[in-house]
Amino acid sequence: MRKVITLLVTSFLLIILTPVDASAAETEEEIEKDNKLSMHQLSNHKSNVEELEMIYIDEETVDMTNNERDLLERLVHAEAKGEPYEGKVAVAVVVLNRVDSNQFPDTVSEVIHQDKQFTPVSNGKINKPAGDSSKEAVEEALHTDRSLVTESLYFYNPKTATSRWLDDKVTTEVIGKHVFKD
C-alpha cells in the first residue's frame, strides 16, 4: 500500500508541478493556457500536494506506533544487543529499506517474519522486550534520512554467521561486529 501511495503522489507531482517549473521563456499566460488553470489554481494544487505528502508521512508514523513499531524495536534489541547505537539504527534502517524494496514484503511485520531472515525470530529472542536504546534507535531510523546504510538490505556478523552467501554482496558499511550489504 505504501508503495502505491508513493507512486500516486509522485505521479501527481509530476503532472501538476512540471508546468510550474517551465522555462523562464514561458509567460504566466502561456502556462495558464497550457494547463487550463490559473497560476493561483496551480499554486493551490501545489499546496494540496504538500498537504497530502504530510498526511501520508503522518499516517506512516501512526502505523509504526503500534505492533509493528514494537516488533521492530524488539528485533533491533535482539539483533544488535551489545552493538553501538549507530549499529542499532542501521539494523532498523535495513528493515525499513526492505519494506521499501520490491524484493521483500511490504510491511515491517512481513519483512521481520519472512522465513529464515532474522535469527531472533526463529530462536524466540524477538519475544524479549526492547531496551531504551533500541527504542530510540528505531525512532531515529523512522525520522532521519537513512543515509547511514541507504542501500543496505542485509547485515550479518561474519564471525557468527553459519551461511556465507552474503560474502559476495557489496559491503556498504561496517558498524561494530555487523557488516551491512546491498
Low-confidence stretches: 1-14, 16-25, 46-63
CATH structural architecture of the largest domain:
Orthogonal Bundle
User: Regarding CATH, which class of the largest domain?
Assistant: Mainly Alpha
C-alpha Rg, in Å?
Answer: 21 Å
Listing every helix as H and every strand as E from the N terminus to the C terminus, the arrangement reads HHHHHHHHEEE
Helix content: 55-70%
Annotation field: number of helices = 8
Keywords: Signal
InterPro entries: Cell_wall_hydrolase_SleB, SleB_dom1
Protein name: Cell wall hydrolase SleB domain-containing protein
Organism: Oceanobacillus kimchii
Task: Provide structural commentary.
- There is one protein chain.
- The protein is mainly alpha-helical and 182 residues long.
- It has two domains: 2-63; 67-181, Arc Repressor Mutant, subunit A.
- It is 55% helix and 7% strand.
- The protein has helices spanning 2-17, 28-35, 39-63, 67-80, 85-100, 108-113, 119-123, 132-142, and strands spanning 154-156, 171-175, 178-181.
- It has a three-stranded antiparallel sheet, covered by helices on one side.
- The longest helix is centred in the N-terminal third of the chain and has 25 residues, at 39-63.
- The radius of gyration is 21 Å and the shape is elongated.
- The model is unreliable at 1-14, 16-25 and 46-63 (pLDDT under 50).
Give the SSE map.
Blueprint: H1 2-17, H2 28-35, H3 39-63, H4 67-80, H5 85-100, H6 108-113, H7 119-123, H8 132-142, E1 154-156, E2 171-175, E3 178-181
Antiparallel strand pairs: 1-3, 2-3
Pfam families: Hydrolase_2
Keywords: Signal
Signal peptide: 1-24
